[in-house]
C-alpha cells in the first residue's frame, strides 16, 4: 500500500508542475522546490499522511520551481486553491473521522479475528474509520461490515500493492502495515492458567489469572508480566461446587491440599539451611508433594531439576522473553524494532520495566544507557533515515512516510544507516549485501549445512558438525525457513498447517479419533506397525491437533477443557460471533445473520448448523422450534407498529442515557458529600439494572429501569449490551475490563432463562453460595472482587449484609488502566500549595508539563476545560476547573444536562498549555439505594412493587434489599488506574448496608470525567488531599 501510495502522490505533483506557469494564481505562492513540501496540496490528500521526497545528500532539488497553494489552502477538483476548511473532511469520506490513520484491527480483513497489537505512531493529517465502520482495503473507504468487498489477495505482498486507490480516493488509512505489537494489551490480558500461590502483587502491568483454583503458596510477588496467581480463598467458578474440601490446587498434579506455606520448600531454598516457619494454615491452601518444590517464577510445584533459574538484580521472570516491541538492551535503543509475536516463546529472565541490559549483562535504568545505543554517529530523531540507508542512498529522491517512530534515532549528516550492522556508517563503509527481504537478517557466518529451507524438513544430512560459510550472506531470521519461492516464512507454515493449535504430522494416528466427541470413550484400535513409515500407504501426512487439543464439530482444534464445557447434544465450544441459534430469536438473529458485530470473538457454546436452543437451552432441530405466530418481536419487547431502531441508533440512545444518568448521579453524590474528593462509575451501575429489567414485569418498576437506560424494550437490552461490552473490552493499548458474577443462595435455583441471559448478554456466570455462613460468603465475594480489580478494591461486602432472606447477589466490576499519550516527568512534580479557602492552603504533589491539549474556556459554565488523552486515542480524562473557588457545585448542576455536557466538549480545541494538576488517589463508598431513589429508580427496592419475575425457579416476591458501589482511582505521572465494583443484593426483605466515606478535603476542587470517546465510564471530584 505504501508503494502505490507514494507513486500516485508523486505523479500528482508532477502533473501540477507541468500545468503551472511561473505566474502564480490567486492564493498561490512560488517556491523553489515544490517536490519537498510535505503538507497536503489537494482536497483529496486531506485525511491521510502525505509522502515527502527526501532531499539528496548533495542538497539539490529533485524537480523544478513552481507554484503551490499558500498555507491553509489546497487545490479542489478543479485545480483552484481554496481554504482547506472548505474541503470535505477526511477526503470526503463521511464514515471517517480525524485520527491517527492506523485503523488498527479495524480493516475488513480483521473482522472475526483476534485483535493484534498496533504500531505506536500517529500520522499527521490522518483519519480513522468511525465506530462500527471498517476500512475496505480494496476501495480505500470506511464501510459497514456487511459492505466489505471480498478480498482476492493471495499474500500480504499482493494486498500491499492492491490498495492504490486509497491515496486518491479519500482513505481513512495511512498504510496497511499493522505493525503487530504485544506491548500493551496482550501483556495485560487475563490468563486462564492457574498458579500455585496464595496471592500475587505484580503491579500495573501484571496479568491476573482468571482461574479461581486454590493455591499452594502463601505469597508470591513475581514481577513478571506473564505470571499469574490466585488467592487460596477464591471460590470455584462452577455453580455446582460447594464442597470446601474439594481442593483442586489449581490443577497442579504435583501439589496437594495443605496449609499453603511451603516452608523451606521453594526452589530458592534448595541447598540452604532450613529456616523458621510461620505458624499459619490458610483455608483451602495447597503445598507441594514430597520431593517437589515451589518455583516462584512459574508458581508451580516441580522437581529440583526442573526449577527455573532465579532472576538477578532488576530482573523479572518472563514466559516469553522473545516477544514484544520494546528494546531489551541498551544497544537496541534508537533503532525502530520489529514487534515479535514468536511461534515458540523462550522462558527466562528479562530486565524489569524501565531497565535495559547493558553490554556487561547487567540491567541498568534505561536513562543510563548511552544515547542511540552508543552509536556516536547517530542522534535523536524519527528513526526513519529516509533516503539515507546503505540500500538506497545512491538511488536519488525516494518517497518518505511522514512518521516519527518512538525511541528513534537518525544518522548524523554525512552518514548512512547500515541495515545489517544497525549502525550509522560512512557510505563507503556499508556492509554488503544489504538484506531487505521480509524476515531476512545479515549473518557473517551463515549455516550452509543443513540447508535452512522448508524442503530440508524431515530429511537427513551428513554435515561436518554445523557447517558455516566465511562469506556473509542474507539468511532467514530465527524460526523462519526459505520456501520454494525464496521467501522467508515461519517454519511451521512450510507444511501449510495454518489452523490454530494445528501441527503437521508426516504420519498422524487415526485411532482413537482426536475429537471432542471421543473424549472419555473406549475404542478398539488396530496395532501400529513397528516402522509405520516403511509400510507402503500406511502414513498419510496431514495436519492434526497438537497434544492436548481435539477437533470440535466445526473442525477447530480446542483444548480438552474447552471441549468439556459444551457436552450437550449437537453443541460445541468455539470462539465465534455474538449470536447463537436460539429458537426464540431465530427469525431476527442467528449465527449467519447477526446484527451484533464484535471486534473480538466470543468464547461460548454454540449449536451446530441447522440446530437452535429451545427454552431449556437444549439444541434441537430448527424445524422443531415452536414460534409465537402472533408476534415477530422477542419476548418482553413493547411491540407496536413503530419501525424498529437499528443497532447503532439503540447504542447511541444507551450512551446518551448513560451521559444523562452519569450527570445526575455525580450531582447527587456531590450534594451528599460536600467538599469531599469522590470517584464513581455510574456507567457500571447500568449493567445490573439492565439484568433486573429483563426480568421485571411490565409496569411502573419496569418503566423506571427502561427510562434510566434510555431504551424501549427488553429486545433492545438483549441486542445492545453484548455488542457494547465486547467493544469496551477490545480497546487498544489501554486496558478496560468488565466482569460480572451472580452468587445464588444454594437452597434456590436460577431459571435457565435468567442464567442464559446473564451469561450471553452480560457475561455473568452463576455460582451457588451458602448465605447461612455469612462470613464465608463475604470472603468468597470479596476474593472475586479483589482478583478482578487487580487488588485495587478489597473488603467490599461484610457478613452483616446477608441474612436468611438473601436470595442472590449481583456483582460486577469495571477496571481501567491507561498510560498518558504524553507522560508527565516525575522530576517536574513539586509539592506546592493547594487552596482550600481564600486564606488557607494544604500541600499537594503538583504535576506539570507543557504541551498541546484540547482546551476551552466556557462562559456558560464559568470554567476552564482541558482534555488529557491516553495511549490508544479513544480514552481521555476531562477536567472542569471552575473559575470561582467554590464553583464546582454550579458546574456539576449544569452538566447534568447531556446537551450542556456535549456542547462543552464541542468547545475543545488544540492549544499549547502549561498544565498543573495534582497527583492523587481517591477511594469512595456509595449507597446506591439512596442515589438511585433520587434519580427516580425506586420500585425495585420494594418487594411489593418490584415485579421481579422469572429469576428463581420457585415463585416468590423479590426486591433489592441493598446496593453499594466502591470505586478507586489512582492518577499519577504515568497514567490512570481506576476500578469500581457494584454489589446488589436481592431478597425478600430489606436491609441497609453500612456506609463508608473516604474524605479528601480542599477548596478549589475540580470535576473530572474518564471517557471512552464521549461515553462516560468514571467521574468524580478532586478536592485536595
UniProtKB/TrEMBL annotation:
InterPro entries: Ser_inhib-like_sf (IPR036084), Serpin_CS (IPR023795), Serpin_dom (IPR023796), Serpin_fam (IPR000215), Serpin_sf (IPR036186), Serpin_sf_1 (IPR042178), Serpin_sf_2 (IPR042185), TIL_dom (IPR002919). Residues 151-246 are annotated as: Disordered. Residues 1-25 form the signal peptide. Keywords: Disulfide bond, Protease inhibitor, Serine protease inhibitor, Signal. GO terms for molecular function: serine-type endopeptidase inhibitor activity. Transmembrane segments: none annotated. SMART domains: SERPIN (SM00093). It comes from the Eukaryota. Residues 663-1025 form the Serpin domain. One of its GO terms (cellular component) is extracellular space. Belongs to the serpin family. PANTHER family: GH10112P-RELATED, SERINE PROTEASE INHIBITOR, SERPIN. This is Zonadhesin-like A. The gene is ZdA.
Amino acid at each position: 500500500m505504501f508503494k502505490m501510495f507514494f507513486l500516485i502522490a508523486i505523479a500528482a505533483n508532477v502533473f501540477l508542475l507541468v500545468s503551472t506557469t511561473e505566474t502564480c494564481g490567486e492564493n498561490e505562492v512560488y517556491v523553489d522546490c515544490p517536490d519537498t513540501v510535505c503538507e497536503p496540496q489537494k482536497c483529496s490528500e486531506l485525511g491521510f499522511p502525505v509522502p515527502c521526497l527526501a532531499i539528496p545528500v548533495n542538497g539539490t532539488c529533485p524537480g523544478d520551481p513552481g507554484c503551490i497553494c499558500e498555507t491553509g489552502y489546497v487545490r479542489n477538483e478543479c485545480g483552484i486553491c481554496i481554504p482547506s476548511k472548505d474541503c470535505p473532511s477526511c477526503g470526503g469520506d463521511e464514515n471517517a473521522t480525524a485520527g491517527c490513520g492506523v485503523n488498527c484491527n479495524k480493516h475488513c480483513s480483521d473482522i472475526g479475528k483476534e485483535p493484534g497489537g498496533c504500531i505506536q505512531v500517529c500520522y499527521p493529517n490522518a483519519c480513522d474509520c468511525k465506530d462500527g465502520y471498517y476500512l475496505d482495503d480494496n476501495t480505500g473507504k470506511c464501510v459497514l461490515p456487511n459492505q466489505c468487498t471480498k478480498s482476492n489477495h493471495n499474500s500480504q505482498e499482493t494486498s500491499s500493492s492492491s490498495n492504490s486507490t486509497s491515496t486518491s480516493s479519500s482513505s481513512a488509512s495511512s498504510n496497511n502495515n499493522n505493525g503487530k505489537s504485544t506491548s500493551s494489551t496482550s501483556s495485560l490480558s487475563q490468563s486462564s492458567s492457574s498458579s500455585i500461590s496464595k496471592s500475587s502483587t505484580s503491579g500495573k502491568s501484571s496479568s491476573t489469572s482468571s482461574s479461581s483454583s486454590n493455591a499452594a503458596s502463601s505469597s508470591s510477588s513475581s514481577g513478571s508480566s506473564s505470571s499469574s496467581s490466585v488467592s487460596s480463598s477464591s471460590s470455584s467458578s462452577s455453580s455446582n461446587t460447594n464442597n470446601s474440601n474439594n481442593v483442586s490446587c489449581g490443577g497442579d498434579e504435583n501439589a496437594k491440599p495443605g496449609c499453603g506455606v511451603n516452608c523451606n520448600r521453594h526452589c530458592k531454598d534448595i541447598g540452604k539451611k532450613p529456616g523458621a516457619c510461620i505458624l499459619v494454615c490458610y483455608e483451602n491452601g495447597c503445598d507441594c508433594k514430597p520431593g517437589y518444590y515451589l518455583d516462584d517464577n512459574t508458581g508451580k510445584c516441580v522437581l529440583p531439576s526442573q526449577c527455573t533459574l532465579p532472576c538477578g538484580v532488576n530482573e523479572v521472570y518472563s514466559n516469553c522473553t522473545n516477544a514484544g516491541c520494546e528494546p531489551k538492551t541498551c544497544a537496541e535503543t534508537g533503532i525502530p524494532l520489529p514487534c515479535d509475536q514468536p511461534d515458540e516463546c523462550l522462558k527466562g529472565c528479562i530486565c524489569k520495566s524501565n531497565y535495559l541490559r547493558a553490554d556487561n549483562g547487567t540491567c541498568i535504568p534505561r536513562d543510563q544507557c548511552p544515547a542511540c545505543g552508543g552509536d556516536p554517529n547517530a542522534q535523536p530523531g524519527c528513526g526513519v533515515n529516509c533516503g539515507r540507508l546503505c540500500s538506497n542512498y545512491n538511488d536519488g529522491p525516494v518517497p518518505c512516510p511522514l512518521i516519527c517512530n518512538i525511541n528513534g534515532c537518525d544518522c548524523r549528516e554525512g552518514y548512512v544507516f547500515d541495515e545489517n550492522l544497525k549502525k550509522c556508517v560512512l557510505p563507503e563503509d556499508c556492509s554488503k549485501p544489504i538484506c531487505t527481504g521480509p524476515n531476512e537478517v545479515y549473518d557473517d557466518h551463515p549455516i550452509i549445512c543443513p540447508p535452512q529451507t522448508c524442503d530440508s524438513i524431515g530429511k537427513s544430512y551428513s554435515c561436518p558438525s554445523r557447517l558455516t560459510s566465511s562469506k556473509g550472506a542474507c539468511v532467514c531470521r530465527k524460526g523462519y525457513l526459505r520456501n520454494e519461492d525464496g521467501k522467508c516464512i515461519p517454519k511451521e507454515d512450510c507444511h501449510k498447517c495454518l489452523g490454530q493449535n494445528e501441527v503437521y504430522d508426516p504420519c498422524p494416528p487415526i485411532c482413537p479419533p482426536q475429537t471432542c466427541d471421543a473424549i472419555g470413550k473406549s475404542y478398539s484400535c488396530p496395532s501400529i506397525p513397528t516402522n509405520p513409515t516403511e509400510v507402503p500407504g500406511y502414513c498419510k501426512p496431514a495436519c492434526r491437533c497438537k497434544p492436548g487439543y481435539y477437533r470440535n464439530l466445526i473442525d477447530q482444534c480446542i483444548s480438552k477443557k474447552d471441549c468439556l464445557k459444551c457436552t450437550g447434544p449437537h453443541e460445541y465450544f468455539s470462539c465465534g460471533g455474538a449470536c447463537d441459534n436460539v429458537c426464540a430469536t431465530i427469525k431476527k438473529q442467528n449465527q449467519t445473520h447477526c446484527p451484533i458485530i464484535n471486534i473480538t470473538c466470543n468464547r461460548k457454546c454454540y449449536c451446530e448448523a441447522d440446530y437452535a436452543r429451545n427454552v431449556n437451552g437444549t439444541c434441537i432441530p430448527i424445524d422443531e422450534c415452536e414460534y409465537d405466530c402472533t408476534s415477530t418481536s422477542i419476548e418482553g419487547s413493547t411491540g407496536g407498529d413503530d419501525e424498529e431502531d437499528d443497532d447503532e441508533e439503540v447504542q447511541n440512545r444507551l450512551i446518551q442515557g448513560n451521559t444523562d444518568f452519569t450527570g445526575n448521579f455525580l450531582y447527587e453524590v456531590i450534594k451528599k458529600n460536600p467538599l469531599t474528593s469522590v470517584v464513581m462509575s455510574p456507567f457500571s451501575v447500568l449493567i445490573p439494572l439492565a439484568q433486573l429489567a429483563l426480568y421485571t414485569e411490565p409496569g411502573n418498576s419496569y418503566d423506571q429501569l427502561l427510562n434510566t437506560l434510555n431504551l424501549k424494550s427488553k429486545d433492545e437490552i438483549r441486542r445492545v449490551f453484548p455488542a457494547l461490552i465486547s467493544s469496551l473490552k477490545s480497546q487498544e493499548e489501554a486496558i478496560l475490563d468488565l466482569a460480572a458474577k451472580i452468587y445464588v443462595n444454594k437452597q434456590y435455583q436460577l431459571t435457565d432463562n435468567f442464567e442464559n441471559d446473564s451469561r450471553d448478554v452480560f457475561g455473568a456466570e452463576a455460582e451457588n453460595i451458602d448465605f447461612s455462613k455469612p462470613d464465608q460468603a463475604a470472603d468468597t465475594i470479596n476474593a472475586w472482587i479483589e482478583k478482578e480489580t487487580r487488588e485495587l478494591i478489597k473488603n467490599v461486602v461484610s457478613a452483616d449484609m446477608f441474612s436468611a432472606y438473601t436470595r442472590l447477589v449481583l456483582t460486577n466490576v469495571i477496571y481501567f488502566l491507561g498510560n498518558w499519550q504524553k507522560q508527565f516527568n516525575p522530576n517536574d512534580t513539586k509539592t506546592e500549595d493547594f487552596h482550600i479557602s481564600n486564606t488557607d492552603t494544604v500541600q499537594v504533589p503538583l504535576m506539570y508539563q507543557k504541551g498541546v491539549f484540547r482546551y476551552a474556556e466556557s462562559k456558560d459554565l464559568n470554567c476552564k476545560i482541558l482534555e488529557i488523552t491516553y495511549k490508544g486515542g479513544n480514552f481521555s480524562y476531562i477536567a472542569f476547573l471552575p473559575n470561582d473557588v467554590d464553583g464546582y457545585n454550579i458546574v456539576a448542576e449544569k452538566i447534568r444536562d447531556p446537551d450542556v455536557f456535549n456542547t462543552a466538549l464541542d468547545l475543545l480545541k488544540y492549544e499549547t498549555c502549561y498544565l498543573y494538576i495534582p497527583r492523587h488517589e481517591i477511594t469512595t463508598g456509595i449507597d446506591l439505594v439512596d442515589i438511585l431513589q433520587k434519580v427516580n429508580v425506586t420500585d425495585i427496592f420494594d418487594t411489593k412493587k418490584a415485579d421481579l419475575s422469572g429469576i428463581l425457579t420457585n415463585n416468590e416476591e423479590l426486591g433489592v434489599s441493598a446496593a453499594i458501589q466502591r470505586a478507586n482511582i489512582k492518577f499519577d505521572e504515568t497514567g490512570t488506574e481506576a476500578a469500581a465494583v457494584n454489589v446488589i443484593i436481592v431478597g425478600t426483605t430489606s436491609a441497609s448496608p453500612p456506609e463508608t466515606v473516604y474524605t479528601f478535603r480542599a477548596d478549589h476542587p475540580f470535576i473530572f470525567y474518564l471517557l471512552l470517546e464521549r461515553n462516560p465510564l468514571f467521574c468524580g471530584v478532586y478536592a485536595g488531599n
